[in-house]
Design a protein that fits this description.
- With about 60 residues, the chain is mostly beta strands.
- About 0% of the residues lie in helices and about 50% in strands.
- It is globular.
- The protein has one domain.
- It binds zinc ion.
- The site of zinc ion has 8 residues, from loops.
- The site of zinc ion (ZN) has 8 residues, from loops.
C-alpha cells in the first residue's frame, strides 16, 4: 500500500510500475535522480504536488 506522499510512475527502462516518495517539505516542483528498484537504472524524476496537494510525477525519464 503506497503512502500518501507516494506517486506512481512507470520506469522508462523496464516499464514496471513503481512508486516514488515525494517529500512534502520539498516544494511543489522537485527534480532528482533515483535508481529504479526493479532494473536499477537511474531515472531522472520531475515530481511535485498538484493543486489538490496530491503527489504527482510530471516526468520520469531515463538518465
Ligand atoms: Zn526499471
Amino acid at each position: 500500500m503506497p503512502l500518501e506522499s507516494d506517486a506512481a510512475y512507470h520506469c522508462p527502462s523496464c516499464f514496471e510500475q513503481n512508486y516514488v516518495a515525494v517529500d512534502p517539505s520539498g516544494g511543489r516542483r522537485q527534480r532528482f535522480v533515483e535508481d529504479c528498484p526493479v532494473c536499477c537504472r537511474p531515472i531522472a524524476f520531475d515530481v511535485g504536488f498538484d493543486a489538490e496537494g496530491d503527489p504527482v510525477v510530471f516526468s520520469a525519464e531515463a538518465e
